Give the backbone structure.
Amino acid sequence: MIKLNVNGRVHDVDAPADTPLLWVLREWVGLAGTKYGCGVSVCGACAVHMDGEITRSCGIMLGEVKDAKIVTIEGLSADGLSHPVQKAWLAHEVPQCGYCQSGQIMAAAALLKGTPKPSDADIDAAMTNICRCGTYQRVRAAIHTAAKTGAA
Amino acid sequence: MSGRGVRGAGHMEQISVVARRGFLGSAAAVAGAFSLGWTIPGAQAQGVANSAATAAGGVEVGIWAVVMPDDTVVVRIARSEMGQGTLTGLAQLVADEMDADWAMVRAEYISPEANLASKRAWGDMSTGGSRGIRGSVEYVRKGGAAARAMLIQAAAAQWGVPVGECAASESVITHRPSGRTLRYGQVAAAAAKLPVPTDVTVKTPAEWKIVGRGVKRLDTVEKLSGKLVFAIDLQLPGMLNASIAQCPVFGGKIGSFDAAKVMGMPGVRHVLKVDDSTIAVVADKWWQAQTALKALPIVWNEGANANVSSASIAKHLEGGLDAKEAFVGLKQGDVTAAMAGAVKKVEAVYGTPFLNHATMEPMTCTAKWDGTTIEVWVSSQNGDASLAAAGEAAGVPLAQVKVNKHHLGGGFGRRGHQDYVRQAVMIAKQVPGRPVKMIWSREEDMQHGLYRPITMAKLQAGLDAQGNLVALHGRISGQSILAYIAPARMAGGMDPVQFQGWNKEEFGYQAIPNLLMDHAMRNTHVPVGFWRGVNHNQNSIYMECFFDEVAHAAGRDPLAFRLGLMGQMPKLAAVLRAAAEKAEYAKPLPAGVFRGICANYGFGSYTAAVAEVSVSKAGELKILRIVAAIDCGHAVNPDQIAAQVEGSFVYGLSPLFTSENTVEKGRIVEGNFDTYEVMKLDQMPKVETVVVPSGGFWGGVGEPTIAVAAPAVLNAIFAATGKRIRTLPLKHHDLSHA
């Protein structure tokens, strides 16, 4: 058993230490909001916060997490709607299919925590998640809106 | 309502016959399927369906709406939602005709088995070809109007007053003389018992209150919290998970595999042959299945296709550019004679590669076999086809199939094809009694797609002494989608879909007196399919970039040159003008900024784009601005149209910049997003969408503007650099210039 702190709760996980955090979250902890997109840390669909830092959970193994605090999309806000990024996402109608949006939202929340008023260049550098529907224009606009309403 | 008998048992047999012919399993299974000739449902269509809404106490008023006791109106949706917004648009159309309170409108899928059992009362479920709305618009509006009439009639009966004295607005019926009111929820039960009227008339556009407004999507909230259960997220009691490996060379077969080597690995339950070319590992968890699959020793019989490469395919296609034999898609006048008399000739050869859909959610399907019934949980672009495919694979009559539809984590045409449903069923049949969720790894998804077909094109133009374009020959050499996916739909060996944008209905420049568009079919062993925008994508690149070349050769302005030849398609000219006007085409650009334009008619909509770019001397391209215009006739939800246009530029510009699939040793080389590179946010140009709804028709929205993305930018690149890029992607080209 390996202890894992997710969204403020400690889970005893009966998985090998070399299991990617993504699959631990989805299959052992039962939180499926974090998505599998590529498995090679390229697409960002699996992004979570690890001690506040944006982290691609497919590329970090359970044994490497240790006592770091993991926050997933399910833990970003109590009601799933009230984080400034979620509010801005709703206002701009960002999602299309929605599959990549957990990762996009987690990346945007992490960006705004470190850089409360990001420039377009900051957004370009931080938001490297792949969206095949092509919501990028609204992702950018929503981040600017969230910055105005205070995301930190 | 659920107590009513299911009608139309006789029709089911008819459907089964069709399914045996493989029609449903293949032709209808593809995203671009044409109408299969079923009766288009009207207001008179009858059907019953138990659904989440009826289970929660709602009653069906007609077949398209369930009214809940609290006045919530749940609109039934037969098409699939994959991000394109169709679910919301269809709900708008029904709710408007119902005079429902939009704030209280929700949506639910109708199940394919309910549709089948009710003589397909909800119509075609296939969601492709940008037809989700335009293909349903007549009958869903009539369904909404019928529900409204039934609700008003029930209220009038309760009051004992003439129907003509009653009016409905925002889910409230008012008896005008007395001012009495009843809410929809109060009369729904009585309304549901009334016969569904057949003579309803729908509103005129001037009467619309919900249609035409950029109302919020109905499916956004659950996409912000991680709570939406995509097919890949499904959890069922006792569920097992499967990962599959298919022979990396298309057409190859399983030689052997050594299951004993992995059976002892954690969680592993079964190592199965799925079909002649597919092996599955079934485990408690998917990660365990995938880990074991990677460790499984497999020998493939790759077959003769293992000798095929991108280079050999290129040779194959080059041979078609001047081949004598070709299918003719459009012919007018005498191109050969006109070309012989031309004063100036322009010729160019273009080419585009295979492209994978790469939906963000890899192919996934859960199936459960209980010995009698096959039940699947799937994100599919065609619920009917999933039902047929599951029944076929399980070897049971369609009445013994259940399909649970999930929202799609991207479709783009890939999920019209039902290969993954068939595989999940073949796995479940070998593991009876337990649901098995099959998830393809990203690598499997990348290397076993149904790719946008590879084609080349040779274009030739003849100008007269005044610089008029008097002859145009467009020759496509390359792979046919229908030949692979639905040969039964070909016409005398010809694939009419190949000529998208270049046919009599869609070609924008028929003022050119001598025209010939033909296709030398050059198929490969690589599976191909409908890729969002389909053949419009590359045909528009070929034609619209070549048009720029011809305009340049004729010494004419590219905009004026195009407009001068669009006489037979005034709405295409209008949309091109609208884009040009918004982009201030007449005004000179700042130093170092260059412009490109293009236009296309496809999926029933007129589109045009203007791109503004800069290219540094060293060759660094920056897209500074895109103006994209679309006339889709009636605009159901302008904000969602804008979202589709913006997204179209991502889907259309990814293959301009970087995306391509190549073939070595018979297999697709690119295995993940590290090698199949797609656009990210930093490459996203600012897209300004101009919606010019001219009314009078219903055009598609999800696909048409992809066709104008790349050509506008390529034409701007020429303006900036003097370089004509005729093969994609750009990553292979040097844009540096003096």
